[in-house]
From TrEMBL:
A Pfam family that the UniProt record links to this protein: DUF2969
Source species of the chain: Streptococcus infantis ATCC 700779
Top-level division of the source organism's lineage: Bacteria
Protein name: Branched-chain amino acid aminotransferase
Length: 76
């Protein structure tokens, strides 16, 4: 028996991201209706935000999104 491929909707939308007590321009990454991560633009870099704190920095948005999706899939 073969499994059917499931269509998964991934949405990246503009948002204000809270880092510590400050708000920065950034993005939220959603899979379906579940928020899986936030990315903030800090000093010409993209930072993955976890629990209101910076987790890691990346030079481009695509790499930050890739890492968030990878971490989400590994945690399942």
């Amino acid at each position: 028996m073969s499994k059917k491929d499931k269509k998964i909707e991934i949405q990246l939308s503009d948002a204000k991201v809270v880092v510590g007590k400050d708000k920065y321009d950034g993005y939220t990454l959603m899979i379906g209706k579940k928020l899986i991560g936030e990315i903030a633009e800090l000093d010409d870099q993209f930072a993955i935000i976890k629990n209101g704190n910076v987790d890691s920095f990346y030079k481009n948005l695509e790499k930050a999104v890739e890492i968030l999706i990878e971490n989400y899939n590994l945690a399942k």
